From TrEMBL:
InterPro entries registered for this protein in UniProt: MdtA-like_BSH
GO molecular function: efflux transmembrane transporter activity
Name of the molecule in the record: HlyD family secretion protein
GO cellular component terms listed in the entry, alphabetical order: efflux pump complex
Keywords: Membrane, Transmembrane, Transmembrane helix
Taxonomy, superkingdom: Bacteria
Organism: Leptospira wolbachii serovar Codice str. CDC
Transmembrane segments: 12-33
Organism taxonomic ancestry: Bacteria, Pseudomonadati, Spirochaetota, Spirochaetia, Leptospirales
Domain annotation Multidrug resistance protein MdtA-like barrel-sandwich hybrid: ranges: 101-313
């Protein structure tokens, strides 16, 4: 019966011993290994586990092989540099391009996001082009029909020319036959008259005279028949009888043009219609290409002002920052104009902490002075490829002056405290350290510029050396 209480007591003692050993071990490790930043971040642990006067002294005495631990102190750094004036500035695109879509319609697809870097000619968005494509198919069919009509009209024209050539050559042949028949008729008529004279003198019989009269009548009839046939051929041909100076081939060319003008006009009309359809196809292809909005320059998409499925309007659909270049814009008073000039190097310090300062050059000085504020606009072109800086961010532009000033600088790791309780540094004294509250501002990335509260003679704790 008495064994159970004794067992519980032994278990309790064992737990207390384990907890004691664990507490001592954790206190030793926390005292020896924790740095100032860890102790400032978890101040409630310092009262329970931090014993620098005992454990650090014990460590120095008992562990002779290990490196000594202690606080490192150093005096502030004095820097003499040009005096600087600062101006609040806003980051803005160096060159902003507002993109409008030439075709109105419903947005089918947007291929980029805000903040995307795009190349020149890259497709940004696409508009629904179904109606334009249907019109293109209709024009393609009309093109095939028109080409067939041109071919048919051309063949009709050439066939008409051939028929005119055949008729003209028949007319020419008939004309030769008429001339020959006329000569034969005249010869026969002269011969008949001579025979009549001989008959009257008794040298020729009446039978021979009658025979000659029949021959003359036959020649006359043949002549008149040829003339009638030629007139029938001429009735369907338009001939210009004033072309006396031209050869037959020249006349044939003129007659061919005159008598095939209708077929030629039909051919020219079909060609004009074909040309109109081809121009409509080119216009349709242009409209089809304009349904895709392409980047006019390489750069970064700042803003997309439309969504998929919406109808386009007259407002810009996107805003592009050319080449991704950024500038900082600010205003200066007229009294500071003598310190700025295009090409002067300046420094831009972003308002966000832990962002490095950015070099820049004065790019443009405004062309007029605001009469109300007596200020003028300045634009600074920042160094390219700034991935952490976005348009709209605030910061300070520092402009160096010819005058020089002295600055007291300390490492950023020496700073303790917060905005609520105040910022301070640990300063070495004859007996230990003491806190000194300071006023400061950031200087570059790893240093602070002391405005008040510290002198060059003070030795400031910087880090814990192991």
């Amino acid at each position: 019966m008495n064994s159970n209480p004794m067992t519980k007591i032994r278990i309790l003692v064992r737990k207390l011993l384990v907890m004691g050993v664990g507490y001592i071990l954790f206190s030793v490790l926390y005292t020896l290994l924790s740095n100032v930043d860890i102790r400032n971040r978890f101040p409630f642990l310092v009262g329970f586990f931090y014993f620098p006067n005992y454990w650090e002294t014990m460590n120095e005495v008992s562990a002779m092989e290990s490196p000594k631990q202690g606080l490192v102190f150093q005096r502030p750094r004095l820097l003499e540099e040009n005096k600087v004036i600062e101006f609040p500035a806003v980051v803005e695109p160096t060159k902003e391009i507002q993109l409008h879509n030439k075709q109105s319609g419903r947005i089918r697809k947007i291929y980029v996001d805000e903040g995307s870097f795009v190349k020149e000619g890259q497709v940004l968005l696409e508009i629904d082009d179904e109606l334009i494509r249907l019109e293109g198919e209709r024009l393609s069919l009309a093109l095939n029909v028109s080409e067939s009509q041109v071919t048919i009209a051309f063949e009709k024209w050439k066939q008409a020319e051939k028929q005119v050539d055949v008729k003209l050559r028949e007319i020419d042949k008939k004309t030769e036959l008429v001339e020959l028949a006329e000569k034969e008729w005249i010869l026969s008529k002269d011969l008949k008259e001579k025979k009549i004279i001989l008959w009257k003198q008794g040298f020729v019989s009446l039978t021979e005279v009658e025979k000659l009269k029949q021959e003359e009548q036959s020649k006359e009839t043949q002549y008149k028949n040829l003339i009638r046939d030629r007139e029938n051929l001429l009735s369907g041909i338009n001939l210009d009888l004033e072309l006396e100076d031209l050869s037959f081939e020249g006349k044939l060319k003129v007659w061919r043009e005159k008598n095939t003008s209708l077929e030629k006009s039909e051919y020219e009309l079909s060609k004009s219609h074909l040309k109109i359809i081809k121009n409509q196809i080119k216009s349709n292809e242009q409209l089809l290409s304009e349904t895709r909005l392409r980047a006019p320059k390489s750069g970064k998409i700042l803003k997309i002002q439309i969504k998929e499925g919406e109808l386009t309007t007259q407002s810009p659909v996107m805003i592009l920052m050319e080449k991704g270049e950024l500038s900082a814009g600010f205003q200066i008073g007229e009294s500071d104009l003598l310190y700025v000039s295009p090409g002067k190097e300046v420094l831009f310090i972003p308002s966000l902490e832990n962002l490095p300062a950015i070099k820049g050059k004065l790019d443009r000085v405004g062309g007029f002075l605001d009469p109300r504020s007596h200020s003028i606009g300045i634009k600074v072109r920042l160094e390219p490829k700034q991935t952490n800086i976005l348009p709209g961010m605030f910061g300070l532009v520092q402009v160096k002056l010819p005058e020089t000033i002295e600055k007291i600088l300390i490492p950023s790791s020496s700073l303790h405290g917060d905005e609520k309780s105040g910022f301070y540094v640990n300063v070495k004294q004859k007996e230990g350290t003491t806190k000194k509250f300071i006023q400061f501002k950031p200087y570059l990335l790893n240093e602070l510029e002391i405005l008040s509260g510290l002198s060059l003679e003070d030795e400031v704790e910087t880090s814990l050396s192991l």
